[in-house]
Amino acid sequence: MKLIDGRRISKEIMGEVKAGVGKLNARDIHPLLATVLVGENPASVLYVEMKSKTCVEAGIKSKNHHLPFDVSEEELLDLINRLNNNPAVHGILVQLPLPEGIDVNRVFRAINPGKDVDGLSPVNLGNLMLGDESMVSCTPKGIIRMLEYEGVKLEGVEVVVVSHSILIGKPLTLLLLNRNSTVTVCHVHTRDLAEHTRRAEVLIAAAGVPHLIKKDMVTEDAVVVDVGTNRVDGKLVGDVDFEAVKDRASLITPVPGGVGPMTIAMLLENTVSAAERLGSK
Ligand code: GUN
Asked: In the 8-state DSSP scheme, what is residue 237?
């Protein structure tokens, strides 16, 4: 078994991001990521803080717009419109989940696709389906990047994704299809999960269920990617029963220190490419 060290890989990417920022600064372009946080969901507050902190480390400016949980959809759309029209803003990230009553699809439809560093606007999701990966959702992009970094073959390979969410499962499936993997998508309604996961040469678990993936659900020498970030008794645990599965897997990501740092690195990379393409100050 070998660990896939997301922290190390993301550090390398951060170095490249910093170099990209330096080149933009030399052209008097100063990449700025605008984050939008609605309400006080503790995990979201923490994620947005981490994103801002990492931006600053990479030389990217970051401004958070914190709105109350009872903000109206119109006020939120009005903020997005102002960010769209502000040439100093290169990336817009609306942290999910949004409070009930706000139409998420309407919000993501409103974001200028050129500034949609989350890759969640219909234009960018459509582009991904067409094989254009110029703005791809950060966690799926980070997963593919770490697999490619480790030299994991994807073409013709049986990949099982346990998630059909818009943040992970759906974009990840498209990225894998673009690389000619044979993809099985499982989710909460799948009848016999183990029957599918046992076939996986690459297994990606993002169901949000602590220790869902047990040893008998993993084939010998599988590559296992754990996207779970579950809080159990104040501890961060993945969707994979790591201790039991680790000796069966050829490569496995830890939690924490696996996919998490890759997500933020991809967000910064997307912000730099948005700034390059927009070319605004
Ligand atoms: N909430 C959890 N993950 C994400 C993400 O990747 N993007 C956004 N916008 N919200 C999230």
From this structure: E
CATH number, domain with residue 154: 3.40.50.720
The answer to whether the CB of 197 is under 6 A from ligand 1 is no
Predicted confidence (pLDDT) per residue in 181-223, tens digit: 999 999 999 999 999 999 999 999 999 999 999 999 999 999 9
Residue range 37-55: mean pLDDT, rounded: 96
Predicted structure pTM score:
0.97
Residue 53 belongs to domain with CATH number: 3.40.50.10860
What stretches of the chain show up as alpha helix (H) in DSSP? Answer: 6-26, 42-57, 73-85, 104-110, 122-129, 138-149, 169-178, 193-197, 242-245, 259-278
Q: Domain span at residue 160? A: 138-260
Per-residue pLDDT tens over the stretch 251-272: 999 999 999 999 999 999 999 9
Residue 134 Rama label (left phi>0; alpha psi -120 to 50; beta): alpha
In angstroms, the CA 258 to CA 147 distance is 11
Say what the pLDDT of residue 280 is: 78
What is the whole-number distance in angstroms between the Cα of residue 154 and the centre of ligand 1?
25
Tell me how crowded residue 171 is: count the other CB atoms within 10 A of its CB: 26
C-alpha closest to that of 241 among 220, 259, 223, 216: 216
Ligand 1 centroid from CA 30, angstroms: 24
Q: Label residues 203-238 b or e (16+ Cβ within 10 Å = b).
A: bbbbbbebbbbeeebbeeebbbbbbbbbeeeeeebb
78 shares a domain with 110: yes
- Does 122 reside within a domain? no
Sign of CA dihedral 37, 102, 229, 248: negative
- Cβ of residue 94 lying under 6 Å from some atom of ligand 1: yes
Q: For residue 195, what are the contacts with CB-CB under 8 A and spacing of at least 6?
A: none
- Tell me the catalytic residues: 51, 95, 118
